[in-house]
Design a protein that fits this description.
alpha+beta; L-amino peptidase D-ALA esterase/amidase; 5 helices
């Protein structure tokens, strides 16, 4: 069972409308998180091919059509912008999938992710891919998030930025919100130049409507850690429910766990990120 909440003002998505309660399709066969801006959505074709070859999909007449909702982030600031995920990359991702703990940092949709672009890309820092999981009340809620925000990433326990816009000399954190409060004006930010995307997965039993609500509640985790969130962000979160625990968990409990898991995954992405030329990671600054 899958739901989605597209909250950002500049999203790049595929197959999200069919996740609304009341639409025909009840289940999905994969979810794709990808970089490469709109070009990266081509990777969904490779995921569909992998599933079709294994007889998985929504039965329509003589064929089965795999349902693969997807979300993309803009990461073409980093490296060669002509290199982006395609159908072959989607196929390879499926072939390489395993039950081992996912890699974090500069991998997958987080490979080219950046944060702190409010005062110009030249003062940004490295984002990345992060994961976290919490088990309580007989269910597990996990989050996988590619952190690619215009604003800073904040540690909720201290209110201080961990990564974000740097000072003009590039050596220290500026503190974007404080800079705005001082009257400093941000750089022009092209629409769609960022976006944090992710998946919340649980083994609880959920209806389609509940899955959509869980995706909505999980956005609270981004709000705790990213400040400011801007019109150039296209934040999108999916919620997946396998039902394997057999427990129809309380939405109050699941919503709280989902937001916390997303928050922890965002912080984990920053802690695991590695700097690239011209774009330092949190570990590179004092």
């Amino acid at each position: 069972m899958c739901g989605v909440e597209v909250r950002g003002a500049a999203p790049g998505t595929r197959e999200t409308d069919l996740l609304a309660p009341g639409t025909l399709v009840e289940q999905v066969h994969a979810v794709l998180l990808t970089g490469g801006s709109g070009f990266g959505l081509d990777a969904a074709g490779g995921v569909m091919r992998w599933l079709e070859e294994r007889g998985r999909g929504f039965a329509v007449g003589p064929v089965r059509v795999p349902i693969v909702p997807a979300a993309v982030l803009f990461d073409l600031w980093i490296g060669d912008p002509r290199i982006r995920p395609d159908a072959a990359a989607g196929l390879a991702a499926c072939a390489g999938a395993s039950e081992a703990p996912p890699e974090q940092g500069n991998v997958g949709a987080g490979a080219g992710a950046t944060v702190g672009k409010l005062f110009g890309i030249e003062r940004a820092m490295k984002g990345g891919f992060g994961t976290a999981a919490i088990t309580a009340a007989g269910v597990t809620v996990a989050a996988l998030v590619a952190v690619n925000a215009v604003g800073d990433v904040i540690d909720p326990s201290t209110g201080e930025p961990l990564a974000g816009a740097r000072t003009k000399d590039g050596r220290h954190l500026l503190g974007s919100l404080r800079a705005l409060e001082r009257g400093e004006l941000p750089a022009p930010t092209p629409a769609g130049s960022a976006t944090t995307i992710g998946v919340i997965a649980t083994d609880a039993v959920l209806t389609k409507a509940q899955a959509n609500r869980l995706a909505s509640l999980a956005h609270n985790g981004i709000a705790r850690c990213v400040n400011p969130i801007t019109m150039a962000d296209g934040d999108t979160l999916f919620a997946l429910a396998t039902g394997t625990s057999g427990h129809p968990a309380s939405m109050t409990v699941l919503g709280a766990l989902a937001a916390e898991a997303v928050s922890r995954a965002v912080l984990s992405a920053i802690h695991h990120a590695s700097g690239v030329p011209g774009v330092p990671a949190a570990r590179d600054l004092v």
